[in-house]
Specification:
The complex is a heterodimer of chains A (about 290) and B (about 400). Chain A is an alpha/beta fold. Chain A has helices at about 1-10, 15-20, 25-35, 55-65, 85-95, 100-110, 125-130, 130-140, 160-165, 180-190, 210-220, 240-245, 255-260, 270-285, and strands spanning about 40-45, 70, 120, 145-150, 170, 175, 195-200, 230, 250-255. In chain B, the strands form 3 sheets. In chain B, strands 3-4-14-9-10-13 form a 6-stranded mixed beta sheet, sandwiched between helices. Classes of the chains: A alpha/beta (about 290), B alpha/beta (about 400).
Chain lengths: ~290, ~400
């Protein structure tokens, strides 16, 4: 595995970490570090609960203090997701939302916001179906900055890395509490943008987070990489966000936002998400 | 005979297979891979596995010359590998015994499984009872409704059946849900996948455990006819019974390998489950293989009269065998399978599973075009007792599972 990490690392263009400071993701983390602030990363599924809501929702999240947007690409078989994100994916698919729609939302978002990084998150099959090069070219043209593919581990993503590096999109990898030291090293050497640390064993939206355990693993990852580390899974309120903010560079929140929208009366979803995120932002900055 | 040694160390059959899963599952799969590598060559494990197959399953299963059917067709001779005579009524038990023994060695007191028709669920519940393991079976809520009898069998055997409400509420969603359970409970839980799909090492491991079927044929056929058959036929959903009987024949290129997929209402109607015949390459359930998907790369609903073939993917080794030309894959539709089902009942006194009926239908198509000296070996992978309700309904007949239903129907 170390051998593999080395061979992947050697395909990395020289000075990639310096170069990534020039991307929106790199710039955002550099600016926040200078301000001694933590990044708030928010996930929503594209086209859920309606096609029309996504772009206004993205702007509203930025107004509420979100630094990075993760936009979910709906997939019929989201194996790593809990019930909340599964439902959101199903709602979007029922509306026929596909990868091309996701690109269109990002393009429209970029008309008014050319600063906030947008990271697409999804599964391998729709990307392969479009073709990796076509996907990369169209994503870049739309203004996408990063890509998380849940079921492309580093060992299986040589082509993805090469293609996304060539178009200038950061491939972001996940690490988990069960990741071995060899895997941490591998992800540290091939990852771009930031590292997404999944704080819990289980699926998205699962129970509560143990911040002491998270701190220990984050320290082990930090020893291997200069990339910022975001922590997601199990962050439900300002208090957990603040505690995670003490140990990581970014706090990632997803299922909680979607739940907020599910529980909102028609027309109130965006306002309620704003209130939720403003609260988390305040706690994070306190 | 050429050497055949796939998959490679990371589970690839050419461009297919692999480990396409989230980071959260990587450690569990690595643990399984390491443990299985140790186990598969351990003489003690092999001896125990073989003992169980002999005394608990009733192996070796016989090969039967379907002479009346062959005479009726007037061409090639049809031989049936009688996996339907195994304990629990299908080949599925070969794999669940192997994996349950592995779970026990790994110290996991809880096993989980996904099931479509319920056959793998029943086989898992059976071995869990046999080895004293807790068993949870995930089953799409649509399948729970369609397969009430198997749900009850699993409960009788002490398993908990969890209906899955997500997605299309069928087998693929049950597999997703079982994976989610595994990610969450990996310390004490072993996931028994029922077919030759999923991430490495599952396709290899499930094939290895089922390859006892082909290994027996390799010595049984010469005993019966003095040589190997001209072709081996098996139905293919995920493809575990087919890999089981094909595997030991791969190196012998004088034997044609023919996989029979579910053509449903006809491949041209779009309502089928023939991923190899009519699908395209993609990634699902942890491996790269042929899938039934739309232009956006979303997995679409499949259809087959037989719930056990109703799956939008297929084992990656079959994908490789197709591309390499070593095996041929054909689609057999619902009506053809149903006709073969009835014909075998009437002419040989054997009630085949609807899954296996697809392979029998293909043999019925081929035999009359071949000389009488030619031999077709069909894997009769399961018995049809579980399909009574489906067949009765298709035939417009009344079939009741219990006396009280009849009472209700009369009023």
């Amino acid at each position: 595995m170390t051998l593999l990490a080395n061979s992947l690392a050697s395909t990395k263009p020289a000075g990639i970490k310096a170069a990534s400071a020039a991307t929106r993701i790199g710039e955002t983390f550099a600016r926040l570090e200078a301000q001694k602030k933590k990044a708030l990363v928010a996930f929503v599924t594209a086209g859920d609960p309606s096609r029309e809501i996504t772009v206004p929702l993205m702007h509203a999240m930025v107004e509420s203090g979100v630094d990075v947007i993760e936009l979910g690409m709906p997939f019929s078989d989201p194996m790593a997701e809990g019930p909340v994100i599964q439902r959101s994916s199903e709602r979007a698919l029922a509306l026929g939302v596909g990868v091309a729609d996701v690109f269109a939302y990002v393009s429209e978002f970029r008309e008014k916001d050319n600063v906030t990084p947008v990271v697409l998150m999804g599964y391998a099959n729709p990307i392969e179906r479009m073709g990796m090069q076509a996907f990369g070219d169209r994503a870049k043209a739309a203004g996408v900055d990063g890509l998380i593919v849940v079921d492309y581990p580093p060992e299986e993503s040589h082509d993805l890395l090469r293609t996304m590096d060539s178009v200038g999109i950061d491939v972001i990898y996940l690490l988990s509490p069960t990741s071995t030291p060899a895997r941490i090293e591998m992800v540290a050497s091939v990852g771009r943008g930031y590292i997404y640390y999944v704080s819990l064993k289980g699926v998205t939206g699962a129970a509560n987070i143990n911040t002491a355990e998270v701190a220990a693993v984050v320290a082990r990852i930090k020893a291997k990489t200069d990339l910022p580390i975001g922590v997601g899974f199990g962050i439900r309120d300002g208090e957990t966000a603040r505690r995670v903010g003490d140990i990581a560079d970014a706090v990632i929140i997803g299922s909680r936002i979607i739940q907020e929208m599910e529980n909102s009366p028609p027309g109130a979803a965006i306002d309620n998400v704003k209130t939720l995120l403003q609260g988390i932002r305040r706690a994070l900055d306190a | 005979m050429q050497m055949y040694d796939l998959p490679d160390a990371r589970g690839h059959f050419g461009q297919y297979g692999g480990v396409f899963v989230a980071e959260t599952l990587q450690a569990a799969l690595l643990e399984l891979k390491v443990e299985y590598e140790k186990t598969r060559t351990d003489p003690e494990f092999i001896a125990e596995f073989q003992r169980e197959l002999k005394h608990y399953v009733g192996r070796p299963s016989p090969i039967y010359h379907a002479k009346r059917l062959s005479d009726d067709l007037g061409g090639a001779q049809i031989y049936l590998k009688r996996e339907d005579l195994n304990h629990t009524g299908a080949h599925k038990i070969n794999n669940t015994i192997g994996q349950a023994l592995l779970a026990r060695r790994m110290g996991k007191p809880r096993v989980i499984a996904e099931t479509g028709a319920g056959q793998h669920g029943v086989a898992s519940a059976t071995v869990a009872a046999r080895y004293g393991l807790e068993c949870v079976v995930y089953m799409g809520s649509e399948d729970v409704k369609r397969q009430a009898q198997n749900v009850y069998r699993m409960k009788l055997l002490g398993a908990t059946v969890v209906p899955v409400e997500s997605g299309s509420k069928t087998l693929k969603d049950a597999l997703n849900e079982a994976m989610r359970d595994w990610v969450t409970n990996v310390e004490n839980t072993y996931y028994i996948i029922g077919t030759v799909a999923g991430p490495h090492p599952y396709p290899m491991m499930v094939r290895d455990f089922n390859s006892v079927v082909g290994k027996e044929c390799i010595w049984q056929m010469p005993e019966m006819i003095g040589r190997q058959p001209d072709a081996v036929l098996a139905c293919v959903g995920g493809g575990s019974n087919a890999m089981g009987i094909f595997y030991d024949y791969i190196g012998d290129e004088s034997v044609r390998l023919i996989g029979c997929e579910a053509g449903g209402e006809g491949v041209e109607t779009g309502r089928h489950a023939a991923s190899l015949s009519a699908g395209s390459a993609g990634i699902l359930h942890g491996n790269r293989t042929y899938l039934i998907q739309n232009a956006d790369g979303q997995i679409i609903d499949t259809h087959s009269i037989s719930a056990g073939l109703d799956y939008p993917g297929v084992g990656p080794e079959h994908a490789w065998l197709k591309d390499s030309g070593r095996a041929e894959y054909v689609a057999v539709n619902d009506e053809e399978a149903l006709a073969a089902f009835h014909r075998l009942c009437r002419i040989e006194g054997i009630i085949p599973a609807l899954e296996s009926s697809h392979a029998i239908a293909q043999a019925i198509k081929m035999a009359p075009t071949m000389a009488k000296g030619k031999v077709l070996l069909v894997n009769l992978s399961g018995r049809g007792d579980k399909d009574m309700a489906t067949v009765a309904e298709r035939s417009g007949l009344q079939f009741f599972c219990r006396a009280s239903c009849q009472q209700n129907a009369k009023t």
